[in-house]
Structure formats: C-alpha cells, structure tokens
Design brief:
single chain, about 100 residues, alpha+beta, YaeB-like fold, 3 helices, about 35% helix
C-alpha cells in the first residue's frame, strides 16, 4: 500500500516543524516530524484510525502526539490519501472544508 500526501498536508507538516522549532528546538522539531512520517506506515492498516464519516465521508483520523492525520483509502488502487495533519485542538471541521 502506498500513500499520497496532499499539498495541504505538506504545508501542515512544514508548519508543525516550524512551530516546534520556534517553541522547543530543531532537534525536537526533527524528532516530531519523523514521528509523524513514521506513523504513515501504520496507515497500511487504515481501519486502525477512527472514522470521521459524519464530518467528512469516507475519511478517518489517526492520532500522533498532539496531531491527527486525516486520511482516506482509495479503494480503486489501494492508495492512502493523506488530506491534512492537524492539531487536536483545531476546528478540523472548518479546516476540512465541511
């Protein structure tokens, strides 16, 4: 199973890294960044994430640290589509364009 990362999710990753660097350190930013990237491997088991169907149809979320990876499985070609990587406290309904 392969995953595809949206441009918004890539921007989210950049923002997370920058926020962590400014508030903690470069080492901590790198560590957390790679922790999130490592979690992508767990998406090979998409059912591990919690469904957010009432908010965004066919999407799931998986928690990683203080953030959640918002994704969906593309059944046509067995790809995981990563839409966003958002902080748990964010209003993710608005950010997902619902």
């Amino acid at each position: 199973m392969v995953y595809q990362i949206s441009s918004l999710a890539l921007e989210d990753l950049d923002s997370i890294w920058e926020f962590t660097r400014v508030n903690w350190s470069i080492d901590q930013a790198d560590k957390y960044y790679f922790e999130i990237l490592s979690a992508f491997d767990l998406l090979q088991y998409p059912e591990m994430g919690e469904s957010i169907n009432p908010i965004k149809e066919l999407h799931r979320k998986m928690l990683v640290g203080s953030h959640m990876i918002i994704y969906q499985l593309d059944n046509n070609d067995d790809r995981i589509l990563i839409d966003r990587i958002l902080h748990q406290r964010m209003d993710f309904e608005n950010l997902l364009g619902v």
